[in-house]
Amino acid sequence: MKDVAFDERGLVPAIVQDAATGAVLMLAYMDREALDATLRTREVHFHSRSRGRLWKKGETSGNVMHLVDLVPDCDADALLIKVHPAGPACHTGDATCFGPVNDRDLGRFLSELAALLRERRRDLPDGSFSTKLFKGGADAIAAKLVEEASETAAALRTEGRERALSELTDLLYVMLVAATHLELTPDEVRASLEEKRREAPARRAQREAR
C-alpha cells in the first residue's frame, strides 16, 4: 500500500465490490488517513470531499462495510475494495449506488449474513447464539456442525422436503460461523472448489481403473 499513487489532492478512487456476489456497490475516494483506518479497523473508511474529513462508511446508518480484501490496480492509481456489506451501500436504500438489485438474491443475503457474523465475532454481544459458538471456539463450532449435519441427514431421509430445507439452512449457518472463525474469504472458498473440479476427472479415472 505504500506505493499507492494518490493524486494532487491526496486522493485515490476506490471501487467497492461485494466479495460474495461480485456486485459493484459504489465509488468513493480515499486519502492516506482513510486507507490506514480501513486497514487498521477492517471496516471501510473514505475521505468525504464535501465535508473535508475522514468518513467511516455506515457511521450514521449502521450499514458498515467489513473489509475482505483491498488491492491496487496495475498503475496503483485506483483501488478495488472487496467487502461484506452490513446493509445497503447507497444512501437511497438501494443495495448499490448504481440502482436497485434483487433484494432476494441469495448471494447478497449470504454476504450480509457474513458481515453480521464478523460483527458478532468482534463484539461478542450477550444473548447471541453466534457469540456462544465463537466463545466456545473450534470445539463448540465443530460439535454444532456434527449435530446439524446429523439432523439434516435424518430429515433428508425420512422427514420430507420442508423439514430438510429447515435443517439444511441451519447447517449452512453453522458452516458460515466456521468460515468466520477461520477467517476464510470467498476467494479461498472458490479456489478450493475450483481445484476440486479440476481434479475430478483424475479421481474418476482412478475409480474406474480399480
First and last CA, distance: 52 Å
The CATH architecture term of the largest domain is Roll
Radius of gyration: 20 Å
Please provide the count of β strands: 6
CATH third-tier fold name of the largest domain: Ubiquitin-like (UB roll)
The top level CATH class name of the largest domain: Alpha Beta
- Kindly report the oligomeric state of this protein: single chain
Q: Structural class, please?
A: alpha+beta
Strand order of the largest sheet: 2-1-6-5
The helix count comes to 5
CATH superfamily of the largest domain: Phosphoribosyl-AMP cyclohydrolase
Order of helices and strands: EEHEEEEHHHH
Detail the poorly predicted runs.
none
Number of domains: 2
Task: Give the overall shape.
Answer: globular
The helix content, as a percent range, equals 40-55%
The biggest sheet amounts to: 4 strands, mixed
Average residue-wise pLDDT: 90
Relative strand content: 15-25%
